[in-house]
Amino acid sequence: MNMSTLKTKDKAMNNLKRIFVSIKSQIDHVADEFENHEALAGVAIEDLQEIASKTRLHLHRVSKMSEQYQQQLITQQEQAHLWSERAIKAKEKDEQKALQCVKRLRQVQQQIQSLEKQCQESTAQEEKIRADIELIQDQLQSLQNKKEILAARQNRTNLQVSLATHHSGSLQDVQNVFQRWEGSVVSSEFSPSEQNIDADNFAKPFEQEEDELALKIMLDELTEQNNSSENNN
Fold first, then answer.
1. Is the distance from CB of 98 to CB of 105 less than 8 angstroms?
2. How far is CA 54 from the centre of its chain?
3. Which of 45, 47, 53 is nearest to 141 (CA)?
4. For 16-72, what is each residue's pLDDT tens digit?
5. What angle do CA 142, 143, 148 make, to 5 degrees?
6. Using the 8-state DSSP alphabet, how is residue 113 labeled?
7. Distance (Å, whole) CA 224 – CA 40
8. What CA–CA distance (Å, rounded) separates 170 from 48?
9. Do 115 and 76 contact (CB within 8 A), yes or no?
10. Residue pair 79/108 in contact by the 8 Å Cβ criterion
11. Quick one: which of 24, 15, 10, 26 has its CA closest to 176?
């Protein structure tokens, strides 16, 4: 291989390298812009996830509060039943004592009314929080799906635009380089290699000896045939 051929191949490989570096830089630039959008979407989703986490914590606290109200309500209802029975029993023996029992009963009933109102409010608040959590989860799922879909679409669009418009000429140069390379390889495949030449030189003496041996065998056969013919005559 002469120096001119080497220089031509080196130049072609350098051009190919520059083309690929150019394409890669453009794709990386597009990817950086896309990744910024994806990062912003990711931050928004993370913020919404944090809101969902705080909302679930708030729901847990409200649920515990509702349970406490329910337990207090049961206790006060038991007290109301107890003071009612005491008032009835005390009326026959001591009316003043019975009136004190009724007074306690009235206080308990007021507490029951207050607890019932608190229970209703906490239950309503709990239902609203559950609805909020369900809405947030739906939004999260929708945003995550949309993010993945947009990511795939944006990536495909940017790559198509980058490859189809900016690098159409560069890609043609790449194709030409590969075609010339393939032609060089095909030409080399049909050219005798040094290994084949060496193999032929090494086999040549053996082939000559084998040919001489075959000729001697034929000569001996001819001689034998001639002698046999003379003896018959």
1. no
2. 28
3. 45
4. 555 445 544 554 554 455 556 777 778 888 888 888 899 899 999 999 999 999 999
5. 100
6. H
7. 102
8. 45
9. yes
10. yes
11. 15
CB contact at 8 A, 23 and 170: yes
Q: Could you write out the DSSP letters of every residue in 87-101?
A: HHHHHTT-HHHHHHH
Residue at 81: amino acid letter: H
Q: Which two tokens stand for residue 215?
A: 């000729």
> How far is 105 from 85, CA to CA, in rounded Å?
10
CA distance linking residue 97 with residue 91, whole number of Å: 7
Residue with tokens 């000559």: 208
Alpha-carbon distance of 164 to 82, in angstroms, equals 88
Q: What are phi and psi of 167, to 5 degrees?
A: -115, 25
Please give the Cα distance from 163 to 125 (Å, whole number).
Answer: 56
What residues contact residue 63 under an 8 Å CB cut-off, 6+ apart?
A: 126
Contacts of 88 (CB under 8 A, 6+ apart): 98
Q: Is the full-model pTM beyond 0.70?
A: no
pLDDT tens-digit readout, 160-180: 766 666 555 566 666 777 788
What is the chain's Cα-based Rg?
A: 50
Kindly report the CA angle at 181 between 177 and 185, in degrees rounded to 5?
Answer: 170
What tokens were used for 23? 């394409």
Q: How far apart are CA 141 and CA 154, in angstroms?
A: 20
